[in-house]
Amino acid sequence: MSPQDPRHAATVTRLAEALMRAVGADKLVRIQAPFSASDQSLPEPDVAVVPRRGDDGHPDAAFLVAEVANTSLQKDRSLKSDVYAQAAIPEYWIADLARRSIEVRKAQLNGRYTIRAAVHPGNTVRIDALDNAEIAVSDVLR
Predict the structure, then answer these.
(1) In sequence order, which residues have a C-beta less than 8 Å from that of residue 70 and are 6 or more positions away?
(2) How far apart are CA 18 and CA 12, in angstroms?
(3) In sequence order, which ranges of 1-142 are alpha helices (DSSP H)?
(4) Half-sphere exposure of residue 73, counting CA atoms within 13 Å on the CB side?
(5) Radius of gyration over alpha carbons of the chain, in Å?
(6) C-alpha triplet 113, 116, 12: angle, nearest 5°
(7) 65-75 pLDDT, tens per residue?
(8) CA distance 49 to 123
(9) In which region does residue 110 sit, left (phi positive, over 0), alpha (psi from -120 to 50) or beta (all else)?
């Protein structure tokens, strides 16, 4: 397995830290850990905000999942977007390193996200599924 690009790794860390500050203590921010999206799919999103549970199983519910895209943008926009929408995750973000934006995807219909918006540094992203918690895009993308 090839090592992660330093810029990708730093962005994952900044995103996780921003989300940890924004969400309540009853939520857990997981970094690159398995998520049970279906019986056949166990993706490892870069960052996921999930309910805290008392067991050691992989979570099968999430408030938000996020991927950091450098070379994986097409896969993150298509395959992974469909997997997360079909798993009924209310929000999916793609931190696009090339365009310096966070693509926000919400509202699933027939297994696909229907609302998409790109948010750039200088703006904030509101997390509807987490009582409108917010993070500043500039805290994540530099």
Answers:
(1) 5, 7, 8, 97, 98
(2) 10
(3) 6-22, 73-75, 81-86
(4) 11
(5) 14
(6) 95
(7) 999 998 889 99
(8) 21
(9) left
H or E segment to which residue 119 belongs: strand 112-119
Res 1: pLDDT: 57
Q: In this structure, which amino acid lies at residue 130?
A: L
- DSSP H or E segment with residue 69: strand 64-69
CA distances from residue 50 to 39, 62, 123 in whole angstroms, order as listed: 18, 4, 24
- Per-residue DSSP letters for 98-112? TTTEEEEEEEEETTE
SS3 label, residue 76: helix
How would you list the strands of the sheet with 64-69, edge to edge?
A: 27-31, 47-51, 64-69, 91-96, 101-109, 112-119
Would you say the pTM of this structure is higher than 0.85?
A: yes
Per-residue model confidence (pLDDT) at position 91: 96
Helix (H) or strand (E) holding 116: strand 112-119
Which residue, 45, 22, 54, 32, is CA-closest to 135? 22
- Show the tokens assigned to 102: 């966070």
